[in-house]
């Protein structure tokens, strides 16, 4: 767990006096943690200025396959050079399931300029947060994740004790043969968690010790599905905690022979895995700036009667920019199998007060307390990179504030669903290709808020995913056409 006292270069030797090694990791574009173990002496020598870290982690995909078109960070022309990885001392915690070894997150810097790397997820979010700080504001956030869980297959010696057994099983068996942790639809079950209680409570306890504590933890509707709401906090720290939560779940799962699955849509015909994000803006004293002191009787819509002018501009920015940042909110080919009608997943640009069918749910008085006023962006799935998602929400909202944008579409009324006749919102992209084309186009809002370097890099990584999908021959195709064409 992160220390109560700030960690400084001067306090490091005493802090690590009983340790022999330190673990460090940074976040890649797919949200995976990439890192290494290093001797304590080495870590202490690089803690201030950083160390060389191979840039290839930004030059290959989630399975270490080099992108078919080399991108700007890591390529032949620059010799696949090292980046500079700078430890964030404030991220210190110990890994409880690895004998409490010290752990630090790093951010990546360009070796030529020493500036933060445009493709580094932690740095992208920090740049958005810094824009608010310049105006005396801060941002708070919360994250919710749903995920399926599968049992490692049985062997003649009993169940596999690590999740690598799943990959072996899938090479020889159909995907739908992988057994779920529990069967049946049991959302919010009090009894279902006793079936695997050492695992269930183990995750809760490990997250608390690892500084990514869970606020609420329960079964969700679906075979072997859990949902976690992480403890609300400052937005940059929340993104870190979300990444570390996934690490915790996967690490604990491997010890129990369980494969947690954060895919957006692991099972056809069942609900997908969401990754909803909650965001609010605060002043230097922590006061919620989305809340309006008194009801606005002349509000353009009743839903925003208790939402401040700043909050309305922020909402307008989200509405206008949402279609242009879809590859961040739905980054994989599979993501768009979740974003379909009739599965409680938003498919259009839409918003509403306490409306869970909308893309953007406003949580505000009179249904919530003023200090809890916030936006819940419900488009992201559990397969997203939390640093990118929160950076995108902040960037779009802040653009709305700067431009003093007005809310351009009416709210969804109660009883109205997205995609229905009453929904006037724009249909969100139906595929990763459609989303990426819009994201990368010259006039994209994404280019305006993030810059060309980031859009070209991240867009290029998504084009890689699209190409792999286009070249894939799926089980569905073979089963459908093997005899009939």
TrEMBL record:
Keywords: ATP-binding, Ligase, Nucleotide-binding. Gene3D superfamilies: Glutamine synthetase, N-terminal domain, Glutamine synthetase/guanido kinase, catalytic domain. Pfam families: Gln-synt_C (PF00120). Residues 121-485 form the GS catalytic domain. GO terms for biological process: biogenic amine metabolic process; glutamine biosynthetic process. GO terms for molecular function: ATP binding; glutamine synthetase activity. InterPro entries: Gln_synt_N_sf (IPR036651), Gln_synth/guanido_kin_cat_dom (IPR014746), Gln_synth_cat_dom (IPR008146). Coiled coil: none annotated. PROSITE patterns: GS_CATALYTIC. Belongs to the glutamine synthetase family. This is Glutamine synthetase. It comes from Epicoccum nigrum (Soil fungus).
């Amino acid at each position: 767990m992160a220390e109560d006292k700030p960690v400084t270069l001067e306090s490091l030797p005493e802090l690590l006096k009983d340790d022999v090694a330190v673990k460090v990791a940074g976040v890649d574009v797919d949200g995976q943690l990439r890192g290494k173990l290093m001797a304590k002496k080495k870590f202490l020598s690089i803690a201030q200025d950083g160390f060389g870290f191979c840039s290839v982690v930004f030059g290959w995909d989630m399975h270490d396959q080099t992108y078919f078109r080399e991108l700007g960070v890591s390529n032949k022309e620059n010799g696949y050079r090292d980046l500079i990885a700078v430890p964030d001392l404030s991220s210190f915690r110990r890994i409880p399931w690895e004998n409490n070894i010290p752990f630090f997150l790093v951010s990546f810097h360009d070796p030529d300029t020493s500036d933060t790397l445009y493709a580094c997820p932690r740095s992208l979010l920090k740049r958005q947060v810094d824009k608010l700080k310049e105006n005396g504001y801060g941002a708070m956030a919360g994250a919710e994740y749903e995920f399926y869980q599968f049992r490692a297959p049985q062997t003649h010696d009993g169940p596999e004790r690590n999740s690598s057994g799943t990959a072996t099983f899938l090479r020889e068996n159909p995907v739908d043969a992988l057994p779920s942790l529990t069967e049946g639809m049991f959302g919010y079950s009090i009894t279902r968690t006793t079936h695997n209680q050492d695992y269930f409570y183990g995750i809760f306890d490990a997250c608390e010790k690892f500084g990514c504590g869970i606020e609420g933890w329960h079964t969700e509707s679906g075979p072997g599905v859990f949902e976690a709401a992480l403890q609300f906090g400052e937005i940059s720290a929340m993104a870190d905690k979300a990444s570390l939560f996934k690490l915790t779940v996967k690490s604990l799962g491997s010890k129990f022979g369980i494969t947690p699955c954060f895919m957006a849509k692991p099972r056809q015909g069942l609900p997908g895995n969401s990754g909803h994000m909650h965001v609010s803006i605060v002043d230097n004293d922590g006061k919620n700036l989305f809340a309006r002191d008194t009801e606005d009787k002349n509000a353009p819509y009743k839903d925003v009667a208790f939402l401040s002018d700043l909050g309305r501009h922020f909402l307008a920015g989200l509405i206008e920019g949402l279609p242009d940042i879809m590859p961040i909110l739905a980054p994989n080919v599979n993501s768009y199998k979740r974003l379909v009608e009739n599965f409680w997943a938003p498919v259009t640009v839409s918003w509403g007060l306490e409306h869970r069918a909308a893309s953007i749910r406003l949580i505000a008085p009179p249904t919530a307390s003023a200090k809890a006023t916030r936006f819940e962006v419900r488009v992201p799935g559990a397969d997203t990179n939390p640093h990118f998602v929160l950076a995108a929400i902040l960037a779009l909202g802040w653009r709305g504030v700067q431009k003093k944008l007005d809310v351009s579409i009416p709210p969804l009324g109660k009883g109205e669903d997205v995609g229905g006749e009453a929904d006037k919102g724009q249909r969100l992209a139906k595929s990763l290709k459609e989303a990426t084309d819009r994201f990368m186009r010259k006039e994209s809002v994404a280019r305006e808020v993030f810059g060309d370097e980031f859009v070209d890099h991240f867009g290029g990584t998504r084009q890689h995913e699209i190409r792999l999908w286009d070249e894939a021959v799926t089980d569905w195709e073979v089963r459908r056409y093997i005899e009939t064409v």
